[in-house]
Write a structure and sequence with these properties.
This protein has one domain (about 1-189). The protein is globular, with a radius of gyration of 18 Å. It has helices spanning about 1-10, 15-25, 30-40, 45-70, 75-85, 85-110, 115-125, 130-155, 160-189. Helix content is about 85%, strand content about 0%. Helix 6 (about 85-110) crosses helix 8. The longest helix is centred in the C-terminal third of the chain and has 29 residues, at about 160-189. It is mainly α and about 190 residues long. It starts with a helix and ends with a helix.
């Protein structure tokens, strides 16, 4: 942790770029933590705007990279699908799920349940989800994510760590409520 703080001191926004990009590939760097921390170190609003733009752009590039990697490795997934009948059933189920809830999955995993974002990226890429739809919702979601995390750090300089815990818990709570409602709906049908 000290190493990353030291890198932020010396290289500032460049480290932010790497953290935001890498998080979208699935590397567990704690991007929410670092975005709020970096936001709490900013002194002027203009720096906040620059940080939001850099972070959103890096996260969008990371999302696109994991999406393209998923698409690239879809060939291997298709070969595995031919060999294992159970995998074919599961992938067909996921395909119908993506067709029904793909936009919602993309958008909410950018800023609400961020830990699932890279998984969604790889899976949507591997199932050949429409790129234009993916990009549109990724851009919107990542701008919201970058703005909210950096702004909360900037605005709540002294208590940003407590706020981060509340935001993380709220995101998972909302996701669990939505999952519960979806399960109840499936049971009722």
């Amino acid at each position: 942790m000290e190493l990353i703080y030291s890198l932020f001191e010396h290289y500032g926004i460049w480290v932010l770029l790497v953290v935001a990009f890498s998080a979208q590939l699935g590397l567990p760097l704690g991007s929410s933590f670092f975005l709020m921390w970096y936001g709490s170190t900013l002194e002027e609003t203009q720096s906040l705007y620059i940080a939001v733009i850099v972070t959103a752009c890096a996260a969008i590039l990371g999302d696109m990279t994991s999406f393209v990697l998923g698409r690239h490795f879809s060939v291997q997934l298709d070969h595995a699908e031919e060999r294992y009948a159970w995998l074919k059933v599961k992938l067909n189920q996921s395909q119908s799920l993506f067709e029904s809830y793909g936009v919602w999955l993309i958008w909410t995993t950018r800023f609400l349940v961020t830990g699932l974002g890279p998984i969604v990226n790889y899976l949507l890429g591997s199932r050949r989800y429409p790129t234009s739809t993916f990009i549109r919702w990724v851009v919107l979601g990542e701008i919201i994510f970058a703005a909210e995390m950096l702004y909360f750090g900037y605005r709540f300089k002294d208590t940003w760590e407590d706020l981060l815990a509340i935001i993380a818990d709220a995101g998972w709570l909302i996701a669990l409520i939505v999952l519960f409602l979806w399960i109840v709906k499936k049971i009722m049908n």
